[in-house]
């Protein structure tokens, strides 16, 4: 019997998880779709780009409310769907169901947490074990992880990737030939795409994460120039203001988990990519996306020059949203949330 995707979506939107047989069927369906997609999945604008979700289910529903529901709105989710939040299972299940229902409107990239090793430490494995009484669903989800896209490219000009760049990757074609159907390696190009971070260094520096690299503005500028890119969009790092442009606006970090770990107090953002990414069409920062004067000041205080953002992109392309209030979300009776340092 075929899986009823609309019925599954209805159930999942209530923050209820699917029966084991249904989620296994969903995993197989999504895996078959991903098998037909490339390492760098081409996407056309308009599309909305999202950062880390980390099992914050109710905030994912808020994101969809703010950004618009599929299929009217297309999405690129840049990984880290699971771990740390209370509802990793329901979150990843909902995203898979949206992908299965509207495969051309939803793109799911792999993050460093879409990994067997990491999910056994930071919550997703334990959550599956608790909810199903076995690890079978976790194993099925991990098989899907292995086929998630490594990156997406929007209109040939905006590259989306979870972490960042690699000294082993100079061209997009070098990403296209990576064998992605495997656990994330501990080093090399695949690992770096998941783990690296932009920083105020010249070229390359050792990452404090213990995986990936720190890369500087020179690296970003050269990579964008060689590959004909206007921008790299990535996630992977908590940004208190929701997003942060760096390296002469050649790279942007998008963070989509508000009040991360239910205690960080940050806002979140989504990035709307369309044909308005032109300086001539930009609006002033204070008039954009509901960001008030206070938030604009915060952005400048955080090291992002507001005038530079206005020149290149216009903050109206970033929609800022806050966490769903506690009284509007459910919390599981048994809490087993990892409170280790956020940067992993």
UniProtKB/TrEMBL annotation:
It comes from the Eukaryota. Transmembrane segments: none annotated. GO terms for molecular function: metal ion binding; protein serine/threonine phosphatase activity. Residues 109-114 form the Serine/threonine specific protein phosphatases domain. SUPFAM superfamilies: Metallo-dependent phosphatases. Signal peptide: none annotated. Belongs to the PPP phosphatase family. This is Serine/threonine-protein phosphatase. It comes from Ceraceosorus bombacis. The lineage of its organism: Eukaryota, Fungi, Dikarya, Basidiomycota, Ustilaginomycotina.
